[in-house]
Design a protein that fits this description.
By secondary structure, the protein is α/β, with parallel strands linked by helices. The chain has one domain: Spore Coat Polysaccharide Biosynthesis Protein SpsA, Chain A (Alpha-Beta Complex), CATH 3.90.550. 29% of the residues lie in helices and 23% in strands. It has seven helices and ten strands. Strands 1, 4, 5, 6, 7, 8, 9 and 10 form an eight-stranded mixed sheet that branches. Strands 2-3 form a two-stranded antiparallel ribbon. It starts with a strand and ends with a helix.
């Protein structure tokens, strides 16, 4: 079993409004992220919300995800990772950490990463596009204590450096693994 944790708790300072509510066509950015994961082979989807959660929760009704609210989202990404991990099924042997502002990652790419992880159990699997690392990243269960120990506004990148010999990089040929939406100009560039 592999669970997905979608990090969508941030304050969206640069965007000026909650990013999970920004529309991309008929759906919000976050609805696209969750829908792509629903169509993939992940076994569970946990969405971590914080800032603006009361407005975002109704947009996820009817989707196959569990929503958890991080009351300490202001402490940074590490607190959202801990919050998400606490909701993951105890039977999960790995967690795929996805970002709530990356709607351009199709389920086929997620499935490629899942298959590679299943062949290389207990590794860290990270997608590449043009030689650059992106998201989502899969962490085997043995790395969870270190993920839980992270402090401040840092994510799993620290573990990628610490365990470089265990990182399996997978070239995916899909720019979506790098493309996030942080500012109004990002959304205009992408036609939002």
């Amino acid at each position: 079993m592999i669970s997905a944790v979608v990090l969508a708790a941030g304050t969206s300072r640069r965007m000026g409004r909650p990013k999970p509510l920004v529309k991309l066509g008929r759906k919000t950015i976050l609805q696209h992220v969750v829908a792509n994961l629903e169509a993939s082979q992940v076994d569970q989807i946990v969405v971590v919300l914080g800032f603006g959660a009361e407005k975002i929760i109704p947009t996820l009704k009817g989707m196959s995800c569990q929503v958890v609210v991080n009351p300490q989202y202001i402490l940074g990404m590490s607190s959202s990772i801990r919050c998400g991990l606490s909701a993951v099924n105890p039977q999960a042997r790995a967690v795929l950490i996805a970002l709530g502002d990356q709607p351009y990652i199709p389920p086929e790419i997620v499935d490629v990463l899942l298959r590679r992880y299943q062949k290389e159990d207990q590794k860290i699997v990270v997608p590449l596009y043009g030689g650059k690392r992106g998201h989502p990243v899969i962490f085997g269960r043995k790395y969870w204590p270190e993920l839980r120990a992270l402090k401040g506004d840092v994510g799993g990148r620290e573990l990628l450096h610490r365990h470089a010999q265990h990182v399996l990089e997978v070239e995916v040929g899909q720019e979506g693994v790098l493309a996030d939406i942080d500012t109004p100009s990002d959304s205009r560039k992408r036609g939002l």
